Amino acid sequence: MKKLSSTWYNMASVLTGISLVAGVALASVNKMTADTIKELNNQREQDAIAQVLGGGDVKIDKVDTVTVSDNLYVVMNAGDKGVAVKAVDPQNASFGGGLTIMVGISTDGEVLGYSVLETHETPGLGAKAAQWFQKGGKGDIIGRNLNEEELTVSKDGGNVDAITASTITSRAFLRAVNAAWQAYSRTQPSQSDTDGVSGATTQDNN
Q: Rounded to an integer, what distance in angstroms lies between the CA atom of residue 162 and that of residue 169?
């Protein structure tokens, strides 16, 4: 086979060909794995819902989507077990740029549990949020009543110990928890009538 001469045209043609082949390959891989990734993410969320609501068989009776501070929150009502809320930091200002959690809350505002679904924090610092605020942890928020007070770190005058060397992440996490309660509150008739919240939809899974 005759060797191509090293001209700009030939080099550009070869690079274009390689790019096209690589692009097609990546697109094919993405298409093949998209459904699997989606299924894994859905399963992870289902596991998180069960975890934050005490485990066992959790049946979601109703799903509401609520907009708070231009962010979408998903409120999943499980009857007597409480509600699970998929929430984000409303300011999206955590150190690594984003935090998504699942929070279990009783209908009167008590924090039942939480699970970190997604974080872009610095490994070893922000990732500690997965355990730091759990029952028995240094920043334990389980059992706190969000209807009585917003959760804030002690550095800001609150009564929750921030993650060591990661106050910014701690603030972001607590903002997400507080926003979860706001989102649930807005699904209640009295709150909806008062606040005039728009953009909320309800889905009955029965």
A: 8
